[in-house]
Amino acid sequence: MNIPSEIRAGDTVKWRDDSATDVFGNEVKSDEWTLKYYLRFNDASEAYTSTGSAFGTGWEFTISASDSTGFLPGTWYWQAVATKGSETLTLGYGNVSVEANLAYTSGPEAYDGRTQVKKDLEAIQLAIRTLIAGGAVQEYKIGNRNLKRYDLPDLVQLEARYKAEVKREEQAELMANGLGNPRNMFVRFN
User: Fold this and answer.
1) 1, 31, 89, 97: which one has the fewest Cβ atoms less than 10 Å from its Cβ?
2) Which residue, among 36, 54, 50, has the nearest Cα to 92 in the 3D structure?
3) Is the pTM of this model over 0.70?
4) How distant, in Å, are the alpha carbons of 42, 116, 183 from that of 168?
């Protein structure tokens, strides 16, 4: 299945899928089968269906810019389902990352493109600075709920764990962008 692994909300998205075969080796092709992609998000109101049009023996799909504008950023899940009469066959499934559209027509709104791990690391570092400055309350009660803040050693340990996670994310992003694995070291002998 050739659905892109990343979609930018507000873009026109196109892809083509070749004909396939079923478990018995019979061809599943566009002159006999209809192929649909069902996309779902973790919000009950967010769903989209794209029906392929015949392209050779396969299918071509288009999600218009006006349709993708409404896609919420995050991980969407898809399932490619071929149907012929009463037969239904799942040809593939997976997920696609939907990224926010940064274009705007009037005043731009705030945008934070950091991952959740990076946001959490910043919050931990702020908590450490606040605690060092003596501005943190160790314990407090709201209604019938008690909240206890982390101690400095716990925060430092948590910071180290999140820094490692951020580093893993950055390395994965480098590899995904074709910039190689930063862990590889190449040695040349003359």
Assistant:
1) 31
2) 36
3) no
4) 25, 13, 11
Q: What is the pLDDT of residues 120-174, one digit of tens each?
A: 888 888 888 887 887 655 655 546 666 566 777 888 888 899 999 999 888 888 7
- Nearest residue to 139 via CA among 150, 129, 128, 130: 150
Spatial separation of the C-alpha atoms in residues 144 and 115, rounded to whole Å: 33
- The number of helix segments (H) and strand segments (E) in the chain equals 3, 12
**C-alpha span between 16 and 57 (Å, rounded):** 11
User: Which residue stretches of the chain are H helix?
Assistant: 65-68, 116-132, 152-176
pLDDT tens-place string over residues 99-120: 988 887 677 777 777 888 888 8
Q: Is 17 exposed, middle or buried (0-12, 13-18, 19+ CB in 10 A)?
A: buried
DSSP state of 11: S
CA–CA gap between residue 162 and residue 44 (Å, rounded): 31
Residue with tokens 């071929």: 82
DSSP state of 186: -
CA dihedral for 130, 131, 137, 142, sign (positive or negative):
positive
| 39, 76 Cβ separation under 8 angstroms | yes
Enter the tokens of residue 50. 């794209």
Whether 66 contacts 16, CB under 8 Å: no
